Amino acid sequence: SACKHLRPLESFSLECDESRVDSRTIYVGHRPSTTEAFIPPKFCDNRIVSSKYTVWNFLPKNLFEQFRRIANFYFLIIFLVQVIVDTPTSPVTSGLPLFFVITVTAIKQGYEDWLRHKADNEVNKYPVTVLENGRRMGTESEKIKVGDVVEVNEDETFPCDLILLQSTRDDDTCFVTTASLDGESNHKTHYTVPDTEKDLDSLSATIECEQPQPDLYKSLGPENLLLKGATLKNTQRICGVAVYTGMETKMALNYQGKSQKRSAVEKSINAFLLVYLCILVSKALVCTTLKYVWQSKPGQDEPWYNQKTQREKETNLYLKMFTDFLSFMVLFNFIIPVSMYVTVEMQKFLGSFFITWDRDFYDPEIQEGALVNTSDLNEELGQVEYVFTDKTGTLTQNNMEFIECCIDGFQYKYRDAVSELDGFSMISDSKGPFNARREELFLRALCLCHTVQVKEPTGRGQDHTDSMAGVDGMEGCPPPHEQTGFIASSPDEVALVKGAMRYGFTFLGMESKKMKIMNRSNAIETYDLLHVLNFDPVRRRMSVIVRSKSGDALLFCKGADSSIFPRVRQEEVEKIRVHVERNATEGYRTLCVAYKKLSPEEYARADADLQAARLALQDREEKLIAVYNQVEAGMTLIGATAVEDRLQEEAAETMEALQGAGIKVWVLTGDKMETAKSTCYACRLFQRGTELLELTVRTLEDGVRKREERLHDLLLEYHKKAVQDVPGWSKPSQDFGFIIDGASLSMVFNSSESSSSHYKNLFLQICQNCTTVLCCRMAPLQKAQIVKMVKCSKGSPITLSIGDGANDVSMILEAHVGIGIKGKEGRQAVRNSDYAIPKLKHLKKLLLGHGHLYYVRIAHLVQYFFYKNLCFILPQFLYQFFCGYSQQPLYDAAYLTMYNICFTSMPILAYSLLEQHICVEVLLDNATLYRSIAKNAMLRWVPFLYWTLLGVFHGLLFFFGVRFLFGNPALQANGQVFGNWSYGTIVFTVLVFTVTFKLALDTRHWTWINHFVIWGSLCFYVIFSFFWGGIIW
C-alpha cells in the first residue's frame, strides 16, 4: 500500500526550534526507499530493570557498600592488623563476628533485590500478542521492539508506550485508567490516529515523534499515546504501534529511586561510637607508654630468664612501639561492638513484622493491613514532632455526595419526596419571576459538562434504554440508572451526575461522540460532543462544546468560583456568591456552572484554533490554554452546586491525640481555604477559641500598597502577636492557628534574595508558635518545599508526611517518615511511602503505640550494648598493670569471640523485640506519655554517661573483687596454684551473669521467649565452659 505518513503525534515544548534533532523516526512495516544502505536506528529493548544487583556484580558491589559504613571498615582494618602483625589474639576473634555481620546484611539485601528481580521478571515475561506479516504471534513483553504493532485486550496493561491505531469501539476511541502512573483512578479517553489504513496487515508508515521525556503531566495530553502501566477499560481490544520501550517509557523515566533515609538513632550511635573510639585509643596509648616506662628500668626489659633474640635487638624502636600500640588496639578492640550493628539490623527487620501483623491495622473493606516498605525507621515513629497531612482522601473520605444547588440565586435542597417525581424543592421565600427553563438549563449543564462514562453492563448490548425498567428507589426518588455504574475522573463528577439524576435528568452514556440524556418528561435528548476542554489545576475549570438537535453550538463550563466569576457578567455574581461562601463555610465543596451560546462564526473560529493548537509541535500546552481562555469568556452564570466530602472515621479523635502528644499538625491541601478551614474545625485542629492569623491573597489585597509591602507588614504584625507578646515562661493563654495559601507562600519563598530569608525566618517562627498551620491551594512541589523548610529549621525536628494521592508523593519522599494511605486515589503514595496504613485512624496507634515502644527498645539496646562491652574490656585493661604490659589476654580466645555472638546477644534481641515498659492501651489513652521520649530523650549524653559510669563501676568491681578473692592463696588438689586462665574465667563468669541479670531486672514485660533466652543463655554458657575446660586441660 502507499506509504502513509502519520502526522507528528507527540510533542513537547522544546527550548529551541530544532525539532528535527529532538525527534525519532520509526518505520512501521517497511524500510525507507533510499538508494544508500539502510542502517536501522538503535532503540532499547522492552526490558524493565529496577533491581540493583546482578549475579555477577552482587559480591563486589554489596561488599563495597557495606564497607562504606564506618564500623565495618574499622573492623576490617583491625582484622588485617591481626593477620599481618603478631598480635596477642588470633585473627578469628574479630574475623568471625565481622564475617557474620557482613553475611547477615548481604543475605537481607540480596533477598530484597531478589524480590525486585522477581517483580521485574513478571513484567518482562508477560505474554503479549504482536502482529507480524499479517499473522498474530504470541511473544514475551521484553521482546517487543520499537515499530511492532501490538494487540491489547480489555483489562490488560499496556506493555510499552503505544500509539493507538485501531479500536473495537465504533467511535474509534478507547478508555484507559492511569492509576499506577499518576494515582488518578479515572477513565481517560484516547482516540485513534485519524485517516490511517484500516487493514493493519498491509500498513506501512513512518512516525515522527519526540525523544523520550519523563514529564508525566505534559505527556498525558496526546490523545493517541497510550502509556505503559495504564490499563485498558470498557474497550474489547485495541491495536497500537510501539514507540517507546523498556527504560525509555514514561513510567520507567518517572521511577524515582528512593533515597536512603537514616534515623536519628543511627546518628546517636555514630556519636557514641566516636567516644568509645577515643577511649580505645587512649587506653592503647596509656598501655604503650607505661610499657616503655616500665621497661626502661634496669633488669625489666631483658630479665635473665627471657633473653632477647638477635632479631629482636635489631628492630627499630619506633617500629616496635607502633606494633605494640597496634597490639593493644587489637586487644581492647572489643569495646567497639560490631555485633551491635547486626542486632540493630535484626531488631529493625523483625520488629517491622509486628506492624504488619497488628490486627488493629486490618481493614475488612479492602482486606489488607499495614505495610512496611522501609524497616530502618521504626524508632523514628516515636520521635515525630511535625505531622504534615493532606486533606482530601486523608482527613476526608473522598466520597462525595450531592447536597444542594443554587440556581439564579434560589437555593434548592434535595427532599425525600415520593409524591413529587422531580424531588426538587425550593427553600427561598419568594418564587419571583422564576422559570423552569433556567432549572432545566442548569440540569442539562450538569448532565453534559463532565467526562463521566456509563459502565456498560456485561453481556448487554449498547442500548441502555432497556435497563431503565428496574427502578431502585433510592432515597425516595427513583434514579432509574443506578444499576449501571458511572466511571469518572473524580468522585465530584459522579456526585453531580447523580445529583442531576435525582432531579429528573439522567445521563444515559455516550455513543460515537453523541451524548444522550433523558429529561423530566422521559424523552431522550441527543447532543453531539464537539470538544472537551479538559480540566487542569491551573485553569481549575473544564468545559464541553456540544451541538443540540436544533443545531445550536453550546458551551457549558463548570469550575471553582475563583476561576468562573471573572469570566461571567458581574451582576449575576452577587446572587450566587453568598450561597457559595455559605456552602464553603459549612465544609462543602462548591462548583459554579456557566454557559454560553456560540454563533456559527464563533464556533468555526474556536474549532480551527483548537485543532491547530492540538497539533502544534512547540509550546502546545501554552497554545491550548490560550485558546481555552479565549473560548471561555463572556459566559452566563446559571448556578452553583454543593457536594459534601465526609470526614474519615475517627479523624477528629486521631488529630486530638496527636496534639495531646505534643505533635504539631500542619494540613497541606490543594483545596479552597473555606472548605479546608471547615475541615480543620471539624477535626478539632482549630478550636472555637483559636485566633486565626491569615496570610492569603484576600488579606494581602488592600488596594493601596504593593502586595510585597503588605506581606511584610502582616508578617511583622503576626510575629509580634504570636512570638514576641507571648511570655516565654508561662503556657500561652491564647492558641493561634495560621492560614496561608499557595500564592502568598510563593511570595514568601520567591521574593527578592535579600528579603527572602528574612521573610522565611519570620514565617517559620510564627508557624512554630501556632498549634495548627493550614496551607491551602498548594501545588505538590510547594508541599515538599514546606516539609523541607521545617526539616532544615533549627533543631532539625523529625517530620512525618501522610497522604493518599500521587500529588502527595513529593512530600512523602521529602519528610523523614513518609506514610501512604491505601485510599481511593491509586497506589502511587503507598508505593513511595515508608509505611502504608489503610485508614488515618491507624496513625494514632502507629505513633503513640508502636513508635513509642520501638524507640524505647532500641535506645535501651544501644546503651546496654555499650555498657556490656565496657564491663567486658575494662578488666582486660586493668590486667595489663599486673602483667608488665605484655599484651597478655585475660580471657580465653573462645570466650573473646563468643561473648558478643553467643553468650549475651539473644537476651537483648528478645528484649528489644518484646519489651513493653508501659502497655499499649495505657500509651494510647495517655497521649502525653509520648512527650516523655521526645527529642531523642533516652539517647542524650546524660543517660549515656550514666550507662558508661555503670560499666566502669561494674568493670572495676569484677576485676578487683576476683583479685581480692585470689589474695588468699589456695591450692588445687594436685598442689598447683590457680593460674592465669582460672582468674580470667572467674572474671568472665561473673561478668556474663551480671550483665544478663541486669537485663532481667530491666525487663518489665516477661514472655516465655524472654525466660527461654535469658536462662537458656546462662545454661549454654555453663555447659560450654564445662566442655571447653575439659578440652583444654
From TrEMBL:
CDD domains recorded: P-type_ATPase_APLT_Dnf-like
Residue numbers binding ATP: D390, K391, T392, E493, F535, K558, R589, T669, G670, D671, R777, K783, N807, D808
Catalytic reaction annotation: ATP + H2O + phospholipidSide 1 = ADP + phosphate + phospholipidSide 2
Secretion signal, residue range per the UniProt entry: none
Biological process (GO), any one: phospholipid translocation
Cofactor: Mg(2+)
Active-site residues, Swiss-Prot/TrEMBL: D390 (4-aspartylphosphate intermediate)
Domain of life: Eukaryota
Pfam families: Cation_ATPase, E1-E2_ATPase, PhoLip_ATPase_C, PhoLip_ATPase_N
GO MF, one annotated term: ATPase-coupled intramembrane lipid transporter activity
Cross-referenced NCBIfam families: ATPase-Plipid, ATPase_P-type
Annotated protein name in UniProt: Phospholipid-transporting ATPase
Species assigned in the record: Gadus morhua (Atlantic cod)
Native organism taxonomy: Eukaryota, Metazoa, Chordata, Craniata, Vertebrata
